[in-house]
């Protein structure tokens, strides 16, 4: 599984996004909603509440926020969900 540090090293994600994602994670704003055979669903609260989904096959992250929609790059909501998942393992 690709980690936040892997994404950062590969320059697929900015340090500002990583910092904001860490802040959301540490504040407890990322919650695991449900797990199915094909995906894991998270709810992440910032100014708004966003749904983050990690599809399992193929492994692919998505978020319903504007940043992800426009940039198609991991956002702070995805970072916070990734950190939550790493913590749970």
Write a concise keyword list for the protein shown above.
single chain; about 90 residues; alpha+beta
Strand content: 25-35%
Rounded mean pLDDT score: 90
**Major sheet description:** 4 strands, antiparallel
Distance between the termini: 11 Å
Helix content: 40-55%
- The number of distinct structural domains comes to 1
Number of strands: 4
- With helices defined by DSSP (H or I, 4 residues minimum), what is the helix count? 4
Sequence stretches where pLDDT stays below 50 over 5 or more residues? none
Using only C-alpha atoms, the radius of gyration works out to 12 Å
H/E element string?
Answer: HHEEEEHH
Give the strand order, joined by hyphens, for the main sheet: 1-2-3-4
- Please tell me what the overall shape is: globular
Q: Class by helix and strand content?
A: alpha+beta
Question: Can you describe this structure?
Answer:
- The protein has helices spanning 4-9, 15-26, 66-71, 76-88; strands at 30-35, 39-45, 49-56, 59-63.
- With 89 residues, the protein is α+β, with helices and mostly antiparallel strands.
- The chain has one domain (4-88).
- Strand 1 (30-35) and strand 2 (39-45) form a beta hairpin.
- Helix 2 (15-26) crosses helix 4 (76-88).
- The model has no long low-confidence stretch (mean pLDDT 90).
Give a quick rundown of the structure:
This protein is α+β, with helices and mostly antiparallel strands. It contains four helices and four strands; from the N terminus they run ααββββαα.
Mind sketching the topology for me?
Elements: H1 4-9, H2 15-26, E1 30-35, E2 39-45, E3 49-56, E4 59-63, H3 66-71, H4 76-88
Antiparallel strand pairs: 1-2, 2-3, 3-4
